[in-house]
Design goal:
The protein has about 700 residues and is of the alpha+beta class. It has 20 helices and 22 strands.
Length: about 700
């Protein structure tokens, strides 16, 4: 009996201990669940941050607190209901970046509390945004003729500025641009009392084309002012302008309510379209600003390790060198071997990426110094270190002047001099040796500066030109440059955060899931909105020909499918992409769904001017060998607005299906990512994690030789 009671008592103790442990484990959830407002959560967050700061003071230096943006956390808490959720998201991303030390309990606790505080704040701010939208129903701002006239003046002034600019260019350049812009039609149309708005719209589209040079300030100024004038003029001509505004606002409120429960890409796309309409018509400016601040978050997160970036520059050069110097009245000649190692180091910076290219050179030489009747033989070793800092920002690549230092050490191995002079000569050699070594070292450092500058400067210029020409300029011309593009570096990694969204688009509705702990050299977390938004900017309204597609595949070093090969027996074809969402993508359930939307398709002489939708879906599986994408079913082709296809449409549908089935292969295998040929590296990136869920693609890779 006593034994049984003992077991019962111990069982109760064990149960109590388990319940106590359970309560400790889930205490944060209980606290958060019982917390009614973000203010109460703010108090919890203040306590957790204080504990974290104490831990940092005891275990790390203050740079870790700077990295975690501790001061910014305090600032956002002080702002209360006006906290900037984008900034809070940036802070959360730091806590989930995988930096060493973030696995500590105090860090995890702050990250969890911060996320719950953010979510509670987001819910409260969304409620305020809905109230703000309801209030905006009574704030319609009519576009009067006077307002339209003011915007027209700005457009005419911008046209005059561009006219002045063109007159300062060469005759050939001026003639080219005036012909391209149809100058006489543009100027007479804009200056007339009743401009043809349809014609002005056509001409305005020319200013947003991907034509080299349109990124210049005078062209951009005319592009912006002409678009603003056109928008106001069109809206002012709408006799039911207020009714249209109320309809748009009602639909916007409905989308906001949907966003609260299910923030899908379809919903965020709809919200983006409404915000764009309000912006273009000059309505609800405060509502638009607040909605963008709250709802549009970065849709691309990228990080690369120092080890990966080093592969781009690292190399070892060995070469024979001839020594030929004149120092302190002596002619020094000789031969040696130079060994140079080029590497890269990252330097911590929260505002830009800082990459330091380092060149370490060792020169071993056998030298002969001759002065009058005296010959001195020596062995020399010169160590030279050069460093050039390269900065990466959204404006491109920039660099500091290379700094270099050198040190020379020599050993005298013999002296040839008349016997009576030997002792004096040796004394002079010993006396001059430090200064000789110093002068030789300085000249070696200067030579390294010149050599590195002549080699590195052109490469940096080329890289920056590629950045500007292939990325920055095309997006600037079309008014699609990222709303946010931020680079930063720690001692171990380079980070990039990107928000791709124009005035008619939103970014991601939230942050991606945290990646599992572990080594990685490359991490990409990509939201489907990034792909959709960027490709709308680049492909919207563009016509793609069969020749252009083959060239694109060739440039990407992809095999040309037989169905897409260009031969005399095959009809030339082309597709014109829709202006809105020409490419769709969905990331979910470890699968990717693609769609292409066109408004016109030509196959030989047959032309269809109907909306065309092409879809394909892939299941994605990570295997030991790499990654495999398996197409699910056939490539589908639809005419969404046509109930029954005629013979020509059936023929076009069949042609499209054949061509795009060859493009969307049954199976796509990847055994890793090869590094660019320019890097001269045999290493490759092998996948070690992949997750495709809830609109996000998250993947990480490790570097392998």
């Amino acid at each position: 009996m006593q034994r049984m009671c003992f077991h019962k008592r111990n069982s109760r103790k064990l149960l109590l201990l388990q319940l106590f442990a359970f309560s400790l484990l889930f205490q944060p959830m209980i606290l958060w669940a019982n917390t009614e407002s973000s203010d109460e959560l703010s108090d919890l967050l203040v306590e957790d941050v204080a504990k974290l700061e104490t831990w940092i003071d005891e275990n790390r230096d203050r740079s870790f607190a700077e990295y975690l943006l501790i001061e910014d956390i305090h600032e956002q808490i002080e702002l209360g209901s006006s906290a900037d959720l984008k900034k809070v998201n940036q802070i959360i991303a730091r806590f989930e970046s995988g930096e060493p030390g973030l696995e500590e309990e105090t860090c995890v606790r702050v990250a969890e509390t911060l996320q719950v505080w953010h979510d509670k704040m987001a819910a409260e701010q969304l409620a305020n945004l809905l109230a703000m939208a309801e209030k905006a129903k009574g704030e319609f701002s009519p576009i009067t003729p006077e307002i339209v006239a003011d915007y027209k003046k700005e457009a005419v002034a911008a046209l005059g500025e561009l006219d002045t600019y063109l007159k300062l260019t060469t005759e050939e350049e001026e003639a080219k641009w005036r012909e391209y812009l149809e100058w006489e039609v543009l100027s007479s149309g804009l200056l007339s009392e009743n401009p043809d708005l349809r014609e002005l719209s056509r001409l305005q589209m020319k200013l947003t084309a991907n034509e080299e040079g349109l990124e210049g300030a005078p062209f951009l100024a005319l592009q912006t002012s002409l678009r603003q004038y056109w928008d106001r003029a069109v809206f002012a001509a709408d006799t039911d302008g207020e009714k249209t505004y109320q309809t748009q606002l009602t639909e916007f409120i409905g989308l906001l309510k949907s966003f609260e429960s299910d923030p899908t890409l379809e919903v965020t796309t709809g919200i983006g379209r409404k915000l764009g309409w309000f912006t273009r018509t000059g309505q609800a400016e405060k509502l638009v600003a607040q909605a963008r601040k709250q709802l549009s978050r970065p849709n691309l997160f990228f990080r690369a390790s120092e080890a990966l970036l080093t592969e781009a520059v690292k190399r070892t050069d060995r070469r024979e060198v001839d020594i030929n110097e004149f120092v302190l009245g002596a002619s020094i000649t000789g031969q040696g071997m130079s060994t140079s190692n080029v590497s890269l180091n990252l330097k911590p910076n929260n505002n830009r990426a800082v990459l330091a290219v380092t060149v370490d050179t060792q020169v071993q030489s056998e030298n002969t110094s001759v002065a009058r009747r005296v010959v001195v033989y020596s062995s020399g070793k010169t160590s030279i270190t050069g460093e050039q800092e390269v900065f990466l920002t959204k404006e491109g690549l920039h660099s500091k002047e290379l700094t270099a230092s050198a040190k020379t050490k020599s050993i005298v191995t013999g002296i040839s001099a008349p016997r009576l002079m030997y002792r004096a000569v040796k004394g002079q050699v010993d006396y001059k040796k430090p200064k000789t070594e110093y002068l030789l070292a300085q000249r070696a450092a200067d030579r390294l500066k010149g050599e590195v500058a002549s080699e590195l400067a052109p490469k940096l210029a080329e890289a920056n030109q590629n950045f500007v020409s292939n990325f920055q300029a095309p997006l600037v011309r079309r008014g699609q440059f990222p709303e946010k593009l931020q680079f930063r570096t720690t001692e171990e990694r380079l980070y990039a955060i990107w928000l791709q969204a124009n005035s008619f688009q939103l970014g991601a509705p939230g942050l991606p899931e945290k990646l599992p702990a572990g080594k990685s050299d490359l991490v990409v977390q990509l939201h489907e909105s990034y792909v959709v938004n960027l490709l709308e900017s680049l492909l919207g309204g563009v016509t793609l020909t069969d020749e252009e597609l083959v060239q694109m595949l060739t440039d990407a070093k992809q095999e040309i499918p037989e169905e897409l090969e260009i031969t005399q027996e095959k009809n030339p074809w082309e597709i014109t992409f829709a202006a809105n969402q020409p490419v769709g993508v969905q990331f979910d359930n470890q699968a990717i769904q693609f769609s292409l939307k066109g408004t016109r398709f030509k196959d030989g002489r047959r032309v269809i001017r109907e909306e065309i939708l092409i879809t394909a879906g892939y299941n994605v599986e990570k295997t030991e060998e790499g990654t495999t994408l398996t197409r699910e079913g056939e490539v589908e082709v639809f005419f969404p607005k046509v109930e029954r296809l005629d013979a020509a449409q059936v023929a076009i549908k069949t042609a499209i299906q054949k061509k795009f089935s060859s493009l969307f292969k049954d199976e796509i295998q990847s055994k890793g990512i090869r590094l660019p040929e320019k890097w001269n590296s045999d290493a490759s990136l092998q996948s070690n994690f992949m997750n495709i869920q809830n609109g996000w693609f998250s993947g990480s890779w490790i570097l392998e030789e």
